[in-house]
TrEMBL record:
GO terms classed as biological process: mitochondrial electron transport, cytochrome c to oxygen
Subcellular locations according to the entry: Mitochondrion inner membrane
Membrane topology: Single-pass membrane protein
Homology family: Belongs to the cytochrome c oxidase VIIb family.
GO cellular component terms listed in the entry, alphabetical order: mitochondrial inner membrane; respiratory chain complex IV
Highest taxon of source: Eukaryota
Lineage, opening ranks: Eukaryota, Metazoa, Chordata, Craniata, Vertebrata
Principal place of residence: mitochondrion
Protein name: Cytochrome c oxidase subunit 7B, mitochondrial
Transmembrane segments: 36-55
ATP-binding in keyword set: no
Length: 78
């Protein structure tokens, strides 16, 4: 391994070790994601489902997924 890459990995590993030790010694306080994370996730999933349910069933969009009748063969040129 190149000396520069080895030094970079060593610094990264040392930084991660310091962060892990620092976080292990402090009390864990619930943050926003601990308090409301599941609620926000479920709310987002509900909104996603309702909006796409409306779009797929009520919006009247003609999707045109079938290529039947739209693709016509062209004459072969030699």
């Amino acid at each position: 391994m190149f000396p520069v890459a080895r030094a970079a990995l060593n610094l990264t590993a040392r930084g991660i070790q310091r962060t892990a030790v620092r976080q292990a010694h402090r009390k864990h306080e619930p943050d926003f994601h601990d308090k409301y994370g599941n609620l926000v996730l479920l709310g987002g999933a509900a909104v996603f489902t309702v909006v796409w349910g409306y779009v797929l069933t009520q919006a009247g969009i003609e999707w045109g997924l079938s290529p039947v009748g739209r693709i016509t063969p062209k004459e072969w040129r030699e």
